[in-house]
């Protein structure tokens, strides 16, 4: 009798939303696949709900790839797995700190080398730079990225910003009279079970090159062109502020809190001003440089690394 395929799931979640997404994606495989879950646990936990100053003070190290450490993994790094599902959230247009800490670890290098990997993202709406960073990590350790699934909040950009900040700072996810529920829409989470079919086929046939096109046929990755431009502008600003703040010390340092407050004050103003401007400029670029922007969208929707 053939052994059941073995799948390792590596994830970090503060709110539980990402774990719910994982559970729905993998539910149809429960009776045919052995699944091992490895939750990443920071040595010094991140709070939820967040304190506002602490939240913004977390940005520099997130953007600069100097994450807070995680506790040793429970899984045997020498164990065999047929597939690894790496589930994560973007923070500040970058991989969450626990995800980055994992990907920088020797344990990850041993677990992921030569393994097919599917990335599964659950977040607001901007994930391109985070995924590029993850792809680079995977490439350097010799992992084989075979698929990507992205579930995002499909509310308008500014609406999703308001609801996610309300959830992050007050712990209130539910809809109000004027605002929708925060986070990935419930229907998106529930229907994510549709991705199990192609994953099951790939595990059976080992034809990993066919997996991402099959996932894409099920709308695994959707991307609005204006978000490409908005995120490119955003990550440049984050990198500047990360350098500016960290020049005054490490996380929580009193000397840098004035700069954190300055960044915190300007960020929301910048977003509310830049979002309509970028939407307008993307419409212009879509008309003037349609092929160039389409190539960018197609690239980010894929799993290749340039």
UniProtKB/TrEMBL annotation:
Superkingdom in the source lineage = Bacteria
- Entry's transmembrane regions: 266-286
Looking up InterPro entries in the UniProt record yields: Flavoprotein-like_sf
Q: Which UniProt keywords apply?
A: Membrane, Transmembrane, Transmembrane helix
Gene3D superfamilies given in the database record: 3.40.50.360
Name under which the protein is recorded: Dialkylrecorsinol condensing enzyme
Protein species of origin: Chitinophaga eiseniae
């Amino acid at each position: 009798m053939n052994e059941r395929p073995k799948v390792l799931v590596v994830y970090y979640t503060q709110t539980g939303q990402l774990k719910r997404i994982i559970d729905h994606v993998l539910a149809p495989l429960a009776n045919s696949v052995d699944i091992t879950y490895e939750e990443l646990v920071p040595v010094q936990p991140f709070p939820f709900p967040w304190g506002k100053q602490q939240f913004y003070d977390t940005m520099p190290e997130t953007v600069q790839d100097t994450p807070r450490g995680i506790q040793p993994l429970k899984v045997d790094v020498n164990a065999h797995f047929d597939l690894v599902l790496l589930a994560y959230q973007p923070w500040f247009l970058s991989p969450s700190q626990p995800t980055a800490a994992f990907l920088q670890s020797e344990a990850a290098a041993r677990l992921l080398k030569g393994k097919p990997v599917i990335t599964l993202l659950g977040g607001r709406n901007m994930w391109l730079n985070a995924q590029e960073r993850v792809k680079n990590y995977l490439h350097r350790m010799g992992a084989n990225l075979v698929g990507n699934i992205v579930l995002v909040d499909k509310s308008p950009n500014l609406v999703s910003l308001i609801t996610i900040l309300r959830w992050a700072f007050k712990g209130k996810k539910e809809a109000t009279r004027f605002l929708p529920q925060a986070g990935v829409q419930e229907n998106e989470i529930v229907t994510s079970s549709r991705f199990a079919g192609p994953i099951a086929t790939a595990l059976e046939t080992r034809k990993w090159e066919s997996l991402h096109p099959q996932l894409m046929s099920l709308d695994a990755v959707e991307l609005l062109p204006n978000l490409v431009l908005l995120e490119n502008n955003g990550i440049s600003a984050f990198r500047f502020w990360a350098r500016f703040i960290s020049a005054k010390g490490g996380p929580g340092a009193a000397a840098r809190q004035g700069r954190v407050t300055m960044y915190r004050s300007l960020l929301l103003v910048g977003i509310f001003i830049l979002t309509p401007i970028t939407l307008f400029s993307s419409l212009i670029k879509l008309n003037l440089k349609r092929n160039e922007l389409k190539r960018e969208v197609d690239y980010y929707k894929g799993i290749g690394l340039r």
